[in-house]
Amino acid sequence: MNRKYGMDKPTMQAVWYYGLNLTSNYYMFLFYNFFLHYLPALFLDFYSLLTFRRRVMLKLYKRVMKMANILFYFSMQDWRFSDDNVRNMWRSLSPSDRVVFPFSMADMSWDYMTETFLLGLRVYLIKDDVSTLPEARKKWNRLYYMHQLLKLGTLCLVLYLGYLLVRIFF
């Protein structure tokens, strides 16, 4: 749902297209992190240096990694919560009280909650006005095609390197 609504309401401040690689292996996380975050930030800051612009990507990368390290423990654990008290309280409410105090998760619209939550993040946290949505969608499409070209270029590079290795050793 986050992907569905997040792509529908992109932000003007996006620096790259959406991508998510979930892994429970710490070393795979480090691999992804190096190739998908650190190297691109390094290249963009190097480009900024060459064009006399302000370098910000490595600083942003360090902030993101600091947050990832904080969240890593919590995201890698199995957490069990009990909602027995809430269920018992719901069952004890009269039908009229259930209408006045609707907190049954069965009646909750996760689609609506996700869409509202992401729009709220965009407007109130990122400070991206809703009027910029058409322009943000154009930028999002450009980022999508750049992402696809980068993936294609990476695939070609890996295949070429594989070809060179095969040629050298065989």
Automatic annotation (TrEMBL):
It comes from the Eukaryota. It comes from Papilio xuthus (Asian swallowtail butterfly). Residues 36-128 form the Fatty acyl-CoA reductase C-terminal domain. GO terms for biological process: long-chain fatty-acyl-CoA metabolic process. One of its GO terms (cellular component) is peroxisome. The chain crosses the membrane at residues 26-50, 149-169. Keywords: Membrane, Transmembrane, Transmembrane helix. This is Similar to CG1443. GO terms for molecular function: alcohol-forming very long-chain fatty acyl-CoA reductase activity.
